[in-house]
Amino acid sequence: MPRNNFYESHLEEATLEWFEELGYEVVFAPDIAPEGEYPEREDYGDVILTERLKEALPRINPRLPNEAVEEALRQILFPQSPSLIMNNKAFQKMITDGIDVQVKRADGAYGTEKAYVFDFAKPLINDFMAANQFTVMEHGAEKRPDVVVWASVGSH
Questions:
Q1: 3-class DSSP state for residue 111?
Q2: Which contacts of 13-19 are long-range, i.e. CB under 8 A and separated by 24 or more positions?
Q3: Which of 7, 20, 56, 92 is the most buried (most CB within 10 A)?
């Protein structure tokens, strides 16, 4: 009886091929790691690709002034709660409802506008990336998911 030699690595490779067929950029995560060939993270605790996000936000929100886009970036990068669950809920709300930012109007008054992380009306303006073997260090413990996916990561 033939043995099935299906390994976890086969599933990882198939997953990456599937994402590539969907139009995702596919990268080998060690290449974008702090010591990688094309580093995009300052340390292994970073899970947000900050430079890519900085490129994506103005592209998705062209009507917003730079100060409002920077405010949206700060809200994403610096969670407001010590609770992981509360931060995840807040981030999910940012994704679905947008991020409230202050915008100076022509009359000098400030008003609230929305900055968006994704452009749902024009999905092709968003960028999508999948990476395998993305190492994260958290509280001294190393974690390495087989595949991690980002959306609206910005283009290079």
A1: strand
A2: 15/130, 15/146, 15/147, 16/130, 16/132, 16/147, 19/128, 19/130, 19/147, 19/149
A3: 56
Handedness of CA 53, 150, 74, 31 (dihedral sign): negative
Residue burial 92-112, b: 16+ Cβ < 10 Å; e: rest: eebeeebbebebeeeeeeeee
Euclidean distance between the first and final Cα of the chain, in Å? 50
Asked if 91 and 84 count as a contact pair (C-beta separation under 8 A), the reply is: no
For the four alpha carbons of 128, 132, 137 and 142, in that order, the dihedral sign comes to positive
- Separation CA 99–CA 61 (nearest Å): 11
